[in-house]
Amino acid sequence: MEASALGRRRRRGWRRAPAAGSPLTRAAVVLLLSAFVARATPSVKVYVMLHQKSPHVLCVTPRLRNSEMIDPSFQWHGPRGKIISENSTAQVTSTGSLIFQNFEEGMSGVYTCFLEYKPTVEEIVKNLQLKYVIYAYREPHYYYQFTARYHAAPCNSIYNISFEKKLLQILSKLVLDLSCEVSLLKSECHRVKMQRAGLQNELFFTFSVSSLDTEKGPKPCTDHSCESSKRLSKAKNLIERFFNQQIEVLGRRAEPLPEIYYIEGTLQMVWINRCFPGYGMNTLKHPKCPECCVICSPGSYNPRDGTHCLQCNSSLAFGAKACV
């Protein structure tokens, strides 16, 4: 009886240690992970226009920028490893800022700056890590698409082909000084039944007007007025004026109308913007550059001149133009 009572007292006084998978241990792990995540530095997105100089990418926080630091030491690492200040394309200034002189497509990626400093002489060295994702971007490929109709010769007539070539030559010469080009997209001849009249032959033209690279155009231009959108706007005005002048000339004509002439009111225009292959627009992902064609991130691609990057899980590089 005494032995049994002693055993019961011992059992009541004994408490089992928590098992490895107990709720207490799991809570401790979650707390530890939460503390680690809270200290993780979020990445900052930076956008640099292709083939242009970048802004200064700082290796300090906004608070430290206006604070005194003793013996600061800066070290940058990018997609290709450590960046040294003597690099010709990427330079690190004496204050730790990263600058690109001529940003290339392949420079896009994650850049990390490691900062060591002392707040005061007496304090210990502090370490800071700043992470950036730097994206190349370029202007959208803007262009105007025009459609126009002409009264024509019989559809099998060689005069229609000759007129088409002459019209394109005139339009191309019209916008040449603006570093723009005219491209014929479609030309068709149809027989059209007119209201309360008979059949007539008509030429249906569809052509585009786009801007050329100003460095490759016949007259290289670096002026602010040479921006793609401004040059295109001027080209559009010239083309509209050209078609209006055709109407004015026909109105003053005393002789019978020529066989091929512009049909008043048929000129239509659409403004189109596209991104080059490997680039796309995404207002949700890039809210600070909503109208930019930003290089496609890993996991996406743009194979043609579409507007958006498409999902591709096998794509591991920036600027992918194919999903392989």
From TrEMBL:
Belongs to the zona pellucida-binding protein Sp38 family. The keyword Glycoprotein applies. Residues 44-138 form the Zona-pellucida-binding protein 1/2 N-terminal domain. Keywords: Cytoplasmic vesicle, Glycoprotein, Secreted. InterPro entries: Ig-like_dom_sf, Ig-like_fold, Sp38-bd, ZPBP1/2_C, ZPBP1/2_N. This is Zona pellucida-binding protein 1 isoform X1. GO terms for biological process: acrosome assembly; binding of sperm to zona pellucida. It comes from the Eukaryota. GO terms for cellular component: acrosomal vesicle; extracellular region; zona pellucida receptor complex. It is found in: Cytoplasmic vesicle, Secretory vesicle, Acrosome; Secreted. PANTHER family: ZONA PELLUCIDA BINDING PROTEIN SP38, ZONA PELLUCIDA-BINDING PROTEIN 1. Pfam families: EGF_Sp38_C, Sp38. Residues 275-323 form the Zona-pellucida-binding protein 1/2 C-terminal domain. The keyword Metal-binding does not apply. It comes from Zalophus californianus. Its main location: cytoplasm.
